[in-house]
Amino acid sequence: MSYSQVKSDGPAPSVPIPRNHLLKFLIPSVIGVLLFLIPFQIGDSVNIGMGVLADGLQSLLGEALPAIAMAVLLLSVAVTLYVKVTKPAWALNGHFKDMFDVGAIWVAMRLLGAVFVVMTYFQVGPEFVTASFTGGVMLNDLAPVLLTFFFFAAILLPFLVEFGFMEFIGSIVRKPFRVIFNLPGRSAIDATASWMGSGTVGVLITAQQYEQGYYNGREASVIATNFSVASIAFSLLVTNFVGINHLFVPFYFTVVVSGLIAAVVVARIPPLSLKSNDYYEPVGCQISEERTENVGLFRYSLLQATRRAAGAPGPQALAKLALINVIDIFLTLLPLVFAIGTVALILAEFTPLFTWLSYPMVPVLELLRIPEAQAAAPATLVGFADMFLPAVLATNIESELTRFVIACLSMTQLVYMSEIGALLLKSKIPIKLWELAAVFLLRTAITLPIIAFMAHTFFF
Question: What is the dihedral of CA 133, 135, 137, 141, to 10 degrees?
C-alpha cells in the first residue's frame, strides 16, 4: 500500500498522504520530542533527553571545560582578526561572512570576552574580574553548561524544526495562539522547549525560525522575550537554593500564571507592539499557517507537516547545518555571553548601581506587604544581569514569603544579559539593548503584583 490513510476530523474528502512522507515526519519528530520536550526524573532531578546528554558530556570532560572555553574564545578572536585583516575567499559571503566579518563593536566584544576568560583562568588582573562570583561564575559555572548544552542543541535541533513538527503543532494551535498572544501557532514549540528544556533553546529555535521566514520581526521579538522561560530543572535548582523546595508546586504554578499574563500584556504594548512586521530581508516572505485546503484541522496539520518533511535536508546537508550551528554558537555567541555577563556581574557585585536603581522598589514592596522590603529591593532588579543573582541575594532574607516572591519574580522576568540578552543581541532578531531593558521592567511591573497577590491569598 503506497498511501497512509489518516482519518479526517471533518466531513471533507480525504487527502492521501504518502507513507514515506509520513514516516519521514514521524520518526525524526518523535526523536526531537523525546530529546527536547519530554521531562523525566532521574534520581532527585528532573531533566530532558538533551540535558542528560549534556550532563554526561560535562561529567566526561569535567575540569577541562574551563580550558576548552578559553581555547574557544581565543580561537574566535584569532579567526575574526584573520578574516578582518586578510579577507580570505571563504569568508567573503555566506555564513562565515556573517560570523567573522563583523563590525568594530563586535570585534571589541570578542576581544573583551577573551581577555576576561584568560584573566579569570590564570587568576591575573583585578579581583573584580577574576573573583569567583564574577568571572569565576562565567568561566567555571556558566561556560561548561553552555558548551555542552549548546553543542547538543545545535546538533539535535533539526529533529524538532526541520521535519514538520513545527508545522503540525503550528496548524493545530494557530487560532488560540493568535487570539491570546497575537502570535503564530508554531511559537508554542518555542515555549514548550523553554519550559521543558532551557530558555536558551527556545531563543535558538526562535532565531532560526526568524531567519527562515517563519516569524516576522515583531513576532520573533515577542516570542524571544516572553516565552524563553527557565526550565523546570533550573526552577528546581532555584527553589532548593532559596530554601522553598517544599513549595515547588505553588511556586511553579505562580510562575506559569504570572508569566502567561505578562506575555499577553507585553506583546500588545510598546516597545514590542511597535516592532515592524517585516520579515528577515534575505528571506523576505511569510510562511502562512492559514488553512488552504478543504480538509479537517488534524489532516490539514498532518499535510503541512509531511510536506515539510518531504523537503527536509538530507543527512549530508543536516550534518553541514549542525556543524555551522556549532561554529556559530561557539565562536560568535560564547565570547559575547562572557563579555556581557562578566560586565553585568561586576556592576551587580562591585558597584551600588543595582542598589541605587532599586530604591523606588522599596515603597512598592511595602505597598504589596512584602516583608524585609529594603533587603529584597535589589533582588527585584539585579536579575537583568543574571537570572541566578536574585536567588543569591534572597538567601540572606529570613521571610519565606519574600524569598518565594523573589524566586518567582526572577523566573518571570526572563530577560537577563549573561545569557538570553547576549544571545538575542547576537541574533538577527531586530531588538535593541534598551528594548530588552524596557521589556525586563515591564515584565517586572506586571508580574510582581500578581505574584504577591497569589502568595498572600493562596500560599501564605
Answer: -150
Q: What is the dihedral of CA 196, 202, 208, 214, to 10 degrees?
A: 90
pLDDT in tens, 303-337: 988 998 999 888 898 888 888 888 888 898 889 88
- Enter the C-alpha cell of residue 203: 531563543
Rounded Cα gap, residues 160 and 205, in angstroms: 9
Alpha-carbon distances of 149 from 33, 197, 381, 437, rounded to whole Å: 16, 10, 27, 26
What is the C-alpha separation between 32 and 406, in angstroms, rounded?
34
- Structural element, H or E, at residue 130: helix 127-130
Domain boundaries, the chain: 16-350
**How many angstroms separate the CA atoms of 300 and 16, rounded?**
11
Burial class (CB in 10 A: 0-12, 13-18, 19+), 372: middle
Mind listing the pLDDT tens digit for each residue in 337-395?
A: 888 888 888 988 899 998 899 999 999 999 999 999 999 999 999 889 878 788 878 88
pLDDT at 292: 58
Instruction: Give the rounded percent of residues in the chain with a pLDDT score beyond 70.
Output: 90
Read off the amino acid at residue 143: A
Q: How far apart are CA 46 and CA 40, in angstroms?
A: 6
- Return the C-alpha cell found at 85: 585583516
pTM of the model: 0.76
| Residue closest to 355 by CA, chosen among 388, 381, 373 | 381
Nearest C-alpha neighbor of 309 from the set 34, 32, 15, 22: 22
Q: How far is CA 235 from CA 124, 133, 239, 407, in A?
A: 34, 20, 6, 9
Burial class (CB in 10 A: 0-12, 13-18, 19+), 306: buried
Q: How far apart are CA 32 and CA 160, in angstroms?
A: 5
Residue carrying C-alpha cell 561572512? 97
- Residue 396 CB: number of other CB atoms within 10 A? 11
Half-sphere exposure in the Cβ direction for 419 (13 Å, CA): 27
Comparing C-alpha atoms, which of 218, 229, 133, 231 is closest to residue 181? Answer: 218
**Residues in contact with 316: Cβ distance below 8 Å, sequence separation at least 6, in sequence order:** none
